[in-house]
Every structure is written in C-alpha cells, then in structure tokens.
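Narrative of accomplishments. A recurring question from our advisory board has been how the design workflow behaves on a single, concrete structure rather than in aggregate. To address it, we present the structure tokens for one chain from the evaluation set, followed by the sequence designed for it. No filtering or post-editing was applied between the two.
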C-alpha cells in the first residue's frame, strides 16, 4: 500500500546515487587504465542514473509533456547505449587475458554494438508511443512497441551473461561476476 509507494521511488533514488558513485569510480578507472571500455561504462552508468532519477521523481514532475520528453530521452539513450555492454564485456575479457578477446574481436564488438544500436533505434524507438503508467508510487512513461520482443536487449543480456560467467570462471573473483550480473540488469533498464 502506502508504505510501498513511498519506498519504491526512494529505492530508485538510492540506485541512482549508487550508479553516480560507480560513475565516479569509472572515471578513476579510466585515468588508471586508459581503457576506452571505462568511458563506455561511464556513459552506461550515467544513463542508468538518469533513468533511476527520472523514475524517482516522475511523480513530482507529473504526467505531461515534460515527463514525456524526459522519458523519450531515456528511451533514446537506452537504445543507443545498451548494446555497448558488449564492448565492456569484451574489453574486460581482454584485460583478463582471454585469448578470444583479440584485436579483431574487440573491433568486431564495436561494429556489432553500433549496428545493434542503430537497428534498435529503427525497430523500437522511432514510432513508439509513450503512455503514462503509475505503479507503486512511480509515475513513468512506457513505450508501446510494434516491433515485438526486445530481441537486441535479450541478445545483449545473454552475451554479457556468457562473458560474465567466463570472466568469473577465468578469474575466480566473485566481484567480476557481480559486476556482470549488474550489467545484465542494466540491459533492461528502460524496457
């Protein structure tokens, strides 16, 4: 009831704060490693933070053109950025010494990510109708897609999950696995 409708938006705010802290960490990571994957990770984290801040404040903003416009940006960022989880996963595998994560595979990850982002824009963003939904104290806009299942989001999620399991098994470090589980969650951040 009422308590849940107050806690749920607060949880989105906490998640946004955690994501912003992780974004600061990814900046430090980039300065140490100079890995372009850290920049991609930063963009992903900022997008997820934006998403959660919008979910936390949607009820305060209210249904209307402002929240709808902010939600359109949220969906656009989602469709453009989520495929780049592939780049982050491949770069992590490369840094851990996976033989398959060579220069060719790393370049292919970029080409694949850009291609999937463009396809997702055409299939799931252009022409999507946004409708306000109120659930558990959160007012947000959701998109009605005519393109069917979010195949690209599902494919990216499975790809990142497989890479994550491989990284976990190769490194033996649970925190890498937790990162990948978190990354897998982000692949669904606005669907």
């Amino acid at each position: 009831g009422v308590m849940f409708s107050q806690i749920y938006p607060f949880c989105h705010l906490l998640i946004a704060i955690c994501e912003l802290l992780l974004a600061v960490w990814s900046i430090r990571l980039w300065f140490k490693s100079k890995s372009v994957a850290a920049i991609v990770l930063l963009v992903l984290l900022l997008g997820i933070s934006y998403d959660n801040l919008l979910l936390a404040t949607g009820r305060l903003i209210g249904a209307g053109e402002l929240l709808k416009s902010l939600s359109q940006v949220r969906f656009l960022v989602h469709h453009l950025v989520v495929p780049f989880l592939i780049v982050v996963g491949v770069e992590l595998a490369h840094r851990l010494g996976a033989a398959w994560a060579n220069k060719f595979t790393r370049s292919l990850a970029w080409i694949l990510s850009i291609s999937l982002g463009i396809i997702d824009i055409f299939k799931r963003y252009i022409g999507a109708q946004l409708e306000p939904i109120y659930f558990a104290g959160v007012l947000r806009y959701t998109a009605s897609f005519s393109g069917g299942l979010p195949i690209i989001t599902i494919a990216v999620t499975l790809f990142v999950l497989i890479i994550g399991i491989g990284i976990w098994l190769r490194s033996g470090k649970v925190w890498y696995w937790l990162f990948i589980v978190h990354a897998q969650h982000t692949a669904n951040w606005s669907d």
